[in-house]
Write a structure and sequence with these properties.
Layout (H helix, E strand, L loop, with lengths): L9 H9 L5 E5 L10 E4 L9 H11 L2 E7 L2 H4 L1 H13 L3 E5 L1 H7 L5 E4 L9 E5 L4
Parallel strand pairs: 1-5, 2-5, 3-4
Antiparallel strand pairs: 1-6, 3-6
Length: 134
Amino acid sequence: MRSNNGTLNAQLARVISEVGHTDLVVVTDAGLPIPKHVERVDLALKQGIPAFLDVLDTVLAELRVEGAIVPEEIAEHSPEMLAEIRRRLEAAAIEVAVVPHEEFKVRTTGARAAVRSGEFTPYANVILQAGVVY
């Protein structure tokens, strides 16, 4: 459920407003395959714009999140990015589960939406499970 307002992108604001408890929202790098039936909020303009962490920060500011999932391969290929993701999620008391990338991609099939950034850092993806604001 939406916790405040401030997102300027109309599609992203609408998606966040429509998300219900336990719905999944994926924040992705530029390369994650997004299933055809999952709504795509494509914010990518070019390499690195917008950055994954900027998109994640925006979504976290607007959406109450009760859980998150990251692909395990990020620990080996992009440890600095994983540290930044964990720092943000742990600051919000959000538990982070880790699954193999192939399982991660399967789980995206159940997402309400995927928000695509311009990030080129390998495995910079997170599935957020919506909580409630009360």
